[in-house]
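Suppose a classmate hands you a notebook page containing two proteins, each written out with its sequence and a corresponding row of structure tokens. How would you begin to make sense of it? This section walks through that situation. The first entry is reproduced here exactly as it would appear on such a page.
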Amino acid sequence: MTPTALLGAYRMMALIRRFEEAVEDAFSRGFVVGTAHFCIGQEASAVGAVSALAPDDLVTSNHRGHGHFLAKGADPRRLMAELFGKATGYAGGRGGSQHVADFAIGFLGSHGITAGTIPVATGAALSQKLLDTGRVVLAFFGDGATGQGAFHEAVNIGAAWELPIVYLCENNLYAMSTSVEESFRVASVADRACAYGIPGVRCDGNDVEAVNRTVAEAAERARSGGGPTLVEAITYRQCGHSRSDECLYRTDDEEARWLERDPIRRLAAKLVERRSSSASMARWPTWSPRPCASRRSPPTPTRTLSPTVSSPSSTSSGSACLAPEEDAPCPSAPTARCTTARPRARRKRLREHGRELPRQRHAPGHRPRRQRVVGQHLTREHRRRALLLHARAAQRGEQQR
């Protein structure tokens, strides 16, 4: 990868990390209900694989698909709006975290069922071959999906028909709480490729260049009519399987070892070594990758506004958010205003658009409980409930008279 491509990959990985941390914080504060599966620590596999494709190639994802979607070119604002249940989201606020898609950018969708999108990706590859479009399909899935029948059936038919598809397994060593050593007798997922008569390649999933190089070769082979390739990217999620996972099945030493191999910190160190960063790199905040949130305090943002990185030696404890130009703003760098002015600006926007709830009068000495407004559809729901309660109170008053 060129220095420019590496810098773009770093910025995309930083965007995915900040997005996932923001979503985790929103869930922990109760702003978003339900559950979500974060890809913190797996950014290199998503960015490296998608950057190796052509712009019109197709991608399918799994339940941990925020990073795949953003790497394919999704708008983080629309994706966040979908998580908050807003009508401006990709699915109109009805899909949530695990069911988003955008055919315009070639993202065929994510799925909450394990291995549910692998047959979909295989069918999409069949359509590309029949239509002779020259496009390749990239199917993301985890190591837990390789134990499902849908995986074996899809890979077998993809190999038999020599479809233009790349099967990418993000092996983060755990299927929920079950390790790969306890699940399979083979040492590697890529070793199973020989049973289907296709190549199987294993790469470092925390090295964006290694993933990009491996997927680029597999995509070129598929595009030229050579058939599918099974790629296994060894990575590690720095959080639980979902936000309710306490990670009691992992040790602190294991998490500490993988934190040292954090993909963003490794890429930042590589950029500094190649002198591809700008002179203003020290202005931006450092990364502080956190281990699993279980057995510790509740999840809190791990951002710091103190610019401390100025040399490659200091990158071992944190990495700077790099900017390509001297005065170019960093898109992932938080500002000191964002944590204090956001609620005030939100209330101001609600008043300007006439979406603020009307103030209700209460008896003297009564302190009403504040209602948190999240999304436009919840505002309408609150109004409907208020009108309904007012009508019922009026009916009771007339009956008492």
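The notebook's second entry, a different protein, reads as follows.
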Amino acid sequence: MRCYFLPKDCCIVIEAATEDAALKGRILRHIETIVRLDVIIGSNTSSISTTALGDTLRIPGRFIGMHFFNPVPLMPPVEPIRGIHTSEATSASVRHLTALLGKTTIGEKTRLARCSRNEHALTRDLHYRGRPARE
């Protein structure tokens, strides 16, 4: 694995690989070996548990999900997704960065799931399971 550009004074690194937990885990662990201990490590994920990804790191408190909505240049929302171990300092820094990027922070959640169309569909299906369909 090769990192092509990573300034020595960066304060956050955001991984944006395809939605493959094993691949993301390998990338995140590699990032952790080349950045300072105070650097926030993020993942642009919308379908993988941020707690599970953070748990692959030695310091899971500095890990957070940052769900950028597509198409990123046109969509202002960014959803920070805390894992169980994400620190408040990490969360606050990401909210600040989101504002600096000219994006809008939406509903930060401390949970394992993410905000996505698939999640909403699943939640809706589970909510209505066992109930008669509307006519």
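A careful reader of the second entry would note: Residues 110-115, 117-135 have pLDDT under 50 and may be disordered.
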